[in-house]
Backbone:
């Protein structure tokens, strides 16, 4: 068994995120879900790399990239340059990918992450724009011979590459960063966050050094990590592999590796000597991308509050605990709903948050519906909360009222009144019911009197049943005690 | 019956408008002349006789249906032209003179071609070119060279040699060419026709199969500057499909002419008259400059000191860009695909087998110039010198309006003269490369003949986007001279 504590991993992540624009990066083809669309149905001469075609930059993609750059606290460069990254592969129609290299759109930012150790900032080196490649499908004919088909629906989709500094020092930090970045991209509305559709992909750079050392070790790059789970497994394995190598007197080579899902191990793809020479040079078909201050200011106006900031604010402003705040901020419509409701009721935020994360979410589970499909407005929920708070309905009744409200869109007040669900808090009325119940169950009463005190619960249930669950439970408990002790 | 093929563009348009003849008459006359001369000249890689006749018939029908008060007819309605085979015309083959695009049918139409189609032209076919426009003689065409109509033992120049020969032989009144390092002006000079190489960004490159993207331009070859201007007028202007096209307004290139050149400041760069150039070339060019002076121009010698760097700078930048531009010809999506044991084999066999030797030479040169460790010394350095060359021109245009110079050091070469010596061939381009590197417009036109009866050309250059001044100056000159009216016996 190796002692992993003597070594510290240093991890940098490159995240490729597709941008949810209407059209592709350099042509007018629509952006389609490439996991579902018929192959090669969203393709034109430009994204198919036909001779003579030229790229034209999609302004919406640039606006989205600026938005991400600003959200990550980056400097937006007034002039950035598209370059050609040259390599041959059948999914790359032009034989080069248009990307940014020496002069990216955005640089020098950071993203705050939350781990058990608290909050810290991960430095972002750069955010740059590029285009996606197509997709190869590998098949076999009837005779068993392998062949491949090319689908160019994805070719030319706008991609953002977001590169960290080597700032992540544990799997936990890496996961927190990836999750936080995904949340940011979703909240900005630039990426769906659907990992299973490949809209976010990772590459990790990993090195190992003696804990506490400032020197960086030889860096290994792992490519094509398409889910959180895969990334975690691959990086965990790689840390273990490098640690073992160093502890057994081996040497870590600078190389590119890939992760084999089946064996759970990383494998060499390319050694340093075989590294591609991409022969980057400025794309002559595109003038330098000029982003004026006006444009940046315009995009800044549209920036929403970021997830980590919102979580902290929910904690401070509404007294929520951290998991509650995280649960609400997971989806901004939910957090918005919470905040709006909170502004209309005197119910404490913590209690209201529980009503949403317990009861509302329970309704979603039970009915198999989405949050947005609930027919309740914040005002309606606030009405119900007030009814609970003032004791007009009890908790159990309120839960069923909420379900009916979500189903029907009928006001809480209306439901309570029309269905006679109002809580019975009338002293005499409750005493009358209690006396009637005791009168009908003299045997149980006698047994209670001789010491079987747990029968008090049974009597409580009988009284609640007789009032159709509407009786104020606290009053029932108190008055029942008095009557039984008489 | 007069030979319609011998008319100027203006006379053709006027004759059709006056009802003297139809576009079908004209198109048929061009096709007949092509059929007669093509066996000797081989200017075309594809002739669309049926398509051209149908288009001419449609043009005639449109003209016949026109009534007073209707929108005016397209300005070039029924005019037959040819298009260099590096420009896409939907439904026609586009080979770029290369085996690697054998059988490729254009899936869309290039913007400058589409604009001319919208202006009413009839396209008779696609003209021969050096493979991917890399060459100065059409000897690099995979489909055989074009011959110079003035003397078929000589090359027509290149790479737009097919277009130049077709115009010189009067097969068509005008043809589109492209100019990356002189490919419009040099064949115009060798074939005794007029050719405009516009400023970079004046004409959309969308649909031009890229060679050197930062240098490529689409121009026109015609019998006179006026004919070229009539056609060029309808190609120029910004295009949303080309991010490098300029949004500057397109002026009229055929506005009424001044009587003379008084007030025009002409600069004659001393670096363009070099040892070893053919004496007749220098003489004819100097005579033409003297004639312009006689027409009122002020002539002064100027210096463009960086001219001697043009060849090395060009042969780093153009091949570097070409090495990326030609990467898409991999046999995967279109064109012939050779078989192989694995993917790398397929690439090697397809590209190795289908590209010609000059194309392969430039791809390798460009790949090397961009390689890690060499980029700064080659490509990076070349870009810096290019900036200095541009500054040369900026400075010159502070003191002169146009620069007058020979197009090439010699008249048309014999076949095979330089085919074994690529460097000697590259040096033929020394006078035309600077305009592309600096992005300035150039207009070549004939100014006489050498002792062997081969045409000599001169070029005028102006500030970026001042094509109008070039057309105007050459038109004034051509109004006083008749070199542009001479035609080869082949075409007689
Ligand atoms: Zn497209």
Residues:
């Amino acid at each position: 068994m190796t002692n992993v504590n003597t070594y510290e991993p240093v991890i940098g992540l490159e995240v490729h995120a597709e941008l949810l624009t209407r059209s592709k990066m350099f042509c007018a083809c629509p952006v389609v879900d490439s996991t579902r669309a018929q192959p090669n149905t969203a393709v034109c001469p430009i994204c198919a790399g036909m001779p003579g075609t030229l790229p034209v930059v999609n302004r919406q993609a640039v606006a989205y990239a600026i938005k991400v750059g600003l959200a990550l606290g980056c400097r937006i460069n007034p002039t950035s340059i598209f370059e050609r990254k040259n390599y041959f592969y059948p999914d790359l129609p032009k034989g080069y990918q248009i990307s940014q290299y020496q002069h990216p759109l955005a640089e020098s930012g950071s993203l705050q992450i939350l781990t058990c150790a608290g909050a810290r900032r991960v430095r972002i080196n750069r955010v740059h724009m590029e285009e996606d490649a197509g997709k190869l499908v590998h098949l076999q004919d009837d005779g068993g011979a392998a062949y491949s088909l090319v689908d160019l629906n994805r070719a030319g989709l706008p991609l953002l590459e977001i590169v960290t500094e080597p700032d992540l020092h544990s799997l936990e930090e890496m996961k927190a960063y990836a999750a936080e970045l995904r949340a940011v991209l979703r909240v900005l509305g630039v990426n769906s966050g659907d990992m299973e559709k490949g809209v976010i992909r990772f590459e990790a750079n990993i090195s190992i050094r003696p804990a506490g050392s400032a020197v960086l070790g030889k860096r290994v790059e792992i490519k094509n990590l398409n889910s959180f789970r895969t990334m975690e497994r691959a990086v965990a394995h790689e840390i273990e592999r490098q640690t073992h190598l160093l502890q057994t007197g081996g040497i870590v080579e600078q190389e590119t590796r890939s992760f084999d899902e089946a064996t759970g191990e990383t494998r060499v793809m390319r050694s340093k000597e075989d590294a591609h020479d991409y022969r980057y040079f400025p794309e002559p078909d595109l003038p330098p991308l000029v982003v004026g201050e006006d444009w940046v200011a315009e995009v800044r106006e549209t920036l929403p509050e970021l997830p980590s900031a919102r979580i902290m604010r929910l904690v401070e402003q509404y007294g929520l605990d951290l998991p509650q705040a995280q649960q609400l901020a997971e989806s901004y419509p939910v957090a918005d709903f919470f905040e709006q409701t909170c502004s209309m009721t005197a119910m404490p935020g913590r209690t209201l948050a529980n009503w949403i994360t317990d009861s509302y979410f329970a309704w979603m589970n039970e009915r198999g519906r989405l949050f947005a499909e609930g027919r309740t407005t914040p005002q309606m929920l606030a009405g119900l909360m007030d009814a609970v708070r003032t004791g007009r309905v009890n908790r159990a009744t309120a839960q069923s009222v909420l379900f009916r409200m979500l189903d029907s869109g009928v006001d809480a007040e209306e439901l309570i009144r029309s269905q006679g669900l109002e809580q019975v808090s009338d002293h005499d009325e409750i005493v009358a019911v209690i006396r009637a119940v005791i009168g009908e169950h003299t045997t149980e009463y006698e047994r209670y009197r001789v010491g079987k005190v747990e029968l008090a619960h049974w009597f409580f249930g009988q009284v609640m049943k007789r009032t159709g669950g509407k009786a104020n439970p606290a009053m029932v408990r108190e008055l029942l005690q008095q009557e039984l002790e008489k | 019956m007069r030979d319609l093929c011998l008319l100027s563009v203006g006379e053709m348009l006027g004759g059709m408008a006056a009802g003297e003849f139809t576009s079908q008459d004209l198109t048929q006359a061009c096709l007949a002349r092509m059929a007669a001369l093509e066996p000797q000249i081989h200017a075309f890689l594809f002739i669309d006789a049926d398509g051209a006749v149908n288009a001419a018939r449609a043009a005639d029908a449109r003209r016949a249906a026109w009534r007073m008060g209707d929108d005016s007819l397209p300005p070039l309605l029924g005019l037959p032209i040819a298009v260099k085979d590096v420009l896409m015309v939907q439904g026609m083959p586009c080979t770029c003179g290369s085996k690697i695009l054998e059988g490729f049918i254009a899936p869309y139409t290039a913007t400058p071609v589409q604009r001319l189609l919208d202006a009413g032209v009839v396209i008779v076919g696609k003209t021969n070119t050096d493979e991917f426009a890399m060459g100065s003689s059409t000897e690099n065409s995979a489909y055989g060279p074009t011959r110079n109509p003035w003397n078929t033992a000589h090359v027509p120049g290149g790479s737009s040699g097919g277009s130049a020969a077709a115009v010189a032989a009067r097969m068509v009144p005008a043809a589109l060419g492209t100019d990356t390092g002189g490919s419009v002006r040099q064949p115009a000079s060798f074939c005794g026709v007029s050719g405009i190489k516009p400023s970079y960004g004046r004409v959309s490159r969308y649909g031009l199969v890229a060679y050197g993207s930062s240098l490529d331009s689409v121009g026109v070859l015609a019998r006179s500057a006026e004919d070229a201007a009539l056609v060029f007028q309808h190609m120029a202007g910004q295009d949303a499909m080309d991010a490098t096209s300029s949004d500057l307004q397109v002026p009229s290139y055929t506005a009424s002419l001044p009587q003379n050149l008084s007030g025009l400041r002409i600069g004659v760069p001393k670096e363009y008259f070099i040892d070893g150039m053919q004496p007749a070339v220098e003489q004819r060019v100097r005579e033409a400059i003297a004639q312009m002076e006689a027409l009122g121009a002020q002539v002064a010698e100027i210096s463009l000191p960086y001219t001697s760097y043009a060849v090395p700078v060009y042969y780093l930048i153009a091949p570097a860009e070409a090495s990326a531009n030609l990467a898409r010809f991999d046999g995967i999506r279109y064109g012939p695909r050779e078989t192989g044991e694995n993917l790398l084999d397929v690439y090697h066999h397809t590209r190795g087998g289908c590209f010609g030797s000059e194309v392969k030479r430039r791809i390798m040169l460009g790949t090397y110039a961009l390689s890690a460790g060499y980029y700064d010394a080659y490509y990076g350095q070349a870009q810096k010198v290019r900036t200095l060359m541009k500054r040369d021109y900026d400075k010159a245009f502070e003191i002169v309006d146009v620069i007058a110079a020979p197009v090439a050091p010699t008249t048309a070469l014999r076949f095979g003269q330089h085919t074994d010596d690529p460097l000697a061939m590259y040096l033929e381009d020394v006078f035309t490369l600077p305009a592309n590197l600096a992005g300035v417009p150039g207009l070549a036109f004939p100014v006489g003949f050498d002792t062997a009866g081969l045409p000599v050309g001169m070029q005028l250059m102006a500030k970026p986007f001042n094509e109008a001044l070039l057309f105007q100056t050459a038109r004034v000159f051509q109004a006083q001279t008749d070199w542009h009216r001479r035609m080869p016996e082949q075409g007689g």
User: Anything to note?
Assistant: Residues A 24, 27, 29, 43-44, 46-47, 156 surround zinc ion (CB under 6 Å). Chain A has 15 helices and 16 strands.
